[in-house]
Design a protein that fits this description.
binds S-adenosylmethionine; single chain; Rossmann fold; seven-stranded mixed beta sheet; 231 residues; alpha/beta
Length: 231
């Protein structure tokens, strides 16, 4: 793990000071994964590349410093925790619908001394009731198809802010299918960036969506409606 992180962090222009907290996080992740379903990736080099460096690659695309960020469906903390470790001036809300994952993240933040996070148990579409247009940036990886994800995330973002959806490189159709949802919710695709995860040959994609206008008050709808009739 240490070698991949050293090479990968260097490639991303990030400090090797991040290695210690990332290793501490990895140890907690692998240990807790024995009793709780957190991740299918536990081999140290793969945790370093497929989790940490994949998430940290976002720092090359967007400036997170001083930003108020929400990570929608953070699960075991991706991409939110690696971003919080790499960008201490960002204020990162880790949001997930599963209480036990949020409990794990609270332990991680406490034991690794990560002070710039808030761990929140809740569904994004319900969290939006009290946190509408509150964040500069929303991030999300592996949570839902883009039309549904847009309805979870865009209401939370301030006008002018950014939604960064991590997707597979073969997501062209999914992006096209989200066009009308984005128009309805006040979003616009600004760029689609394919990147290689450092130390691998694996390509991933970041879809950068700008919030160009306010989301109409009637969105987000209740989860059952979002699922039954995605925009
Ligand atoms: C497959 S996991 C991905 C976790 C993490 N983002 C990653 O890339 O490893 C999806 C997570 O999204 C959460 N989730 C799904 N829908 C959600 C919603 N509407 N609001 C909040 N969390 C949600 C689930 O509880 C689950 O932890």
């Amino acid at each position: 793990m240490e070698k991949s992180l050293t090479v990968g962090l260097h490639e991303l222009g990030l400090s090797t000071d991040l290695i210690t907290p990332l290793q501490q996080y990895a140890a907690l992740l692998v240990e807790q994964n024995k009793v709780m379903n957190l991740t299918g990736i536990t081999e140290p080099k793969e945790v370093a590349t497929l989790h940490f460096l994949d998430c940290l690659a976002l720092t090359k695309l967007v400036d997170f410093s001083e930003k108020n960020v929400v990570d929608v469906g953070t699960g075991a903390g991706f991409p939110g925790i690696p971003l919080a470790i790499a960008v201490p001036t960002a204020d990162i809300t880790l949001l997930d619908a599963l209480q036990k994952r949020i409990g794990f993240l609270q332990t991680v933040c406490q034991q690794v001394n990560i002070e710039n996070t808030t761990c929140v148990h809740g569904r994004a579409e319900e969290f939006a009731k009290d946190h509408r247009a509150s964040f500069d940036i929303a991030t999300s990886r592996a949570v839902a198809s883009l039309p549904m994800l847009a309805e979870f995330s865009l209401p939370l973002i301030k006008e002018g802010g950014l939604f960064l959806a991590m997707k597979a490189v073969d997501s062209d159709e999914e992006i096209s299918a989200a066009k009308s949802a984005l128009e309805t919710l006040g979003g616009q695709v600004e760029s689609v960036v394919d990147y290689t995860i450092p130390c691998t040959q694996i390509r991933h994609r970041a879809v950068l969506i700008r919030k160009v206008s306010q989301t109409p008050e009637k969105y987000p709808r209740a989860f059952a409606k979002i699922k039954k009739t995605p925009l």
